[in-house]
Amino acid sequence: MRDLSELRRDYKQGGLRRKDLPQSPWKLFELWMDQARQAEICDPTAMVLATVDANGQPFQRVVLLKKFDENGLVFFTNTGSRKSQHIKDNAKVNVIFPWNDLERQIAITGEAEALPTSEVVSYFATRPKDSQIGAWVSQQSSKISARGVLEGKFLELKQKFAKGEVPLPSFWGGYRIKPDSFEFWQGGDRRLHDRFLYSLQDNDWSAERLAP
């Protein structure tokens, strides 16, 4: 067995105190997101999305947050993907933003709902053309024999759409996660980390400190 027990570090970048908490977790989420972007950490909008299949087996993968406001967190994906099938059967999801460089993470629970086509079309039009074509190429989560299959299909479609716009695939869409809890974690000295859990009840947010 490989022993990794000696790998450790101290957390000294700062704390999180109740007096610093806004009434709404969205305000703190926006502040931390802005600070993550300003710190130029790698992929600040990357979030680990957890879903559960029909057998209760959890799955996780990284998706990119594209928009957010107090109505929810928005991401886009192939609607034939494994994650989309899980959401269809069980809309309850969890996401984590692992901002290790800032000794922070945000864990969010909620329910995912499909976006209207108009919103998907609007975003799809902003993607680079190669990314639009890539959406057509991949039947996400399906088995393929080799990468060459993807490369060949991409070149074929790139030629097909060379002189025109790339239409929205019928199997491509997005989701809005409507949160019911936010947990903000800030690393602390001597492993006395700061954790605050915001919970939504009757359209009001309440915050509780959790032991590390």
Automatic annotation (TrEMBL):
InterPro entries in the cross-refs: Pyridox_Oxase (IPR000659), Pyridox_Oxase_CS (IPR019740), Pyridox_Oxase_N (IPR011576), Pyridoxamine_oxidase_dimer_C (IPR019576), Split_barrel_FMN-bd (IPR012349)
Q: Which GO terms describe its molecular function?
A: FMN binding; pyridoxamine phosphate oxidase activity
Q: In which pathway does it act?
A: Cofactor metabolism; pyridoxal 5'-phosphate salvage; pyridoxal 5'-phosphate from pyridoxine 5'-phosphate: step 1/1; Cofactor metabolism; pyridoxal 5'-phosphate salvage; pyridoxal 5'-phosphate from pyridoxamine 5'-phosphate: step 1/1
Where in this chain does the record put each Pyridoxamine 5'-phosphate oxidase N-terminal domain?
34-159
The entry's substrate-binding residues are R8, R9, D10, Y11, K66, Y123, R127, S131, R191, L192, H193
Which residues span the membrane? none
Q: What class of enzyme is it?
A: oxidoreductase
Which PROSITE patterns is this protein grouped with? PYRIDOX_OXIDASE (PS01064)
Domain (Pyridoxine 5'-phosphate oxidase dimerisation C-terminal): residue spans on this chain:
172-212
Q: Name one GO biological process term.
A: pyridoxine biosynthetic process
- What are the binding positions for FMN in this chain? 61-66, 76-77, 82-83, 105, 140-141, 185, 195
Task: Name the UniProt key words of this record, in alphabetical order.
Answer: Flavoprotein, FMN, Oxidoreductase, Pyridoxine biosynthesis
Reactions listed under catalytic activity: pyridoxamine 5'-phosphate + O2 + H2O = pyridoxal 5'-phosphate + H2O2 + NH4(+); pyridoxine 5'-phosphate + O2 = pyridoxal 5'-phosphate + H2O2
Per UniProt, the cofactor note for this protein states:
Binds 1 FMN per subunit.
Q: Does the keyword Ion transport apply?
A: no
Gene3D superfamilies from the UniProt entry? Electron Transport, Fmn-binding Protein, Chain A
Q: What is said about its interaction partners and assembly?
A: Homodimer.
* Protein family: Belongs to the pyridoxamine 5'-phosphate oxidase family.
What protein name is recorded for this chain?
Answer: Pyridoxine/pyridoxamine 5'-phosphate oxidase
Tell me the organism. Answer: Paraferrimonas sedimenticola
Q: Which gene encodes it?
A: pdxH
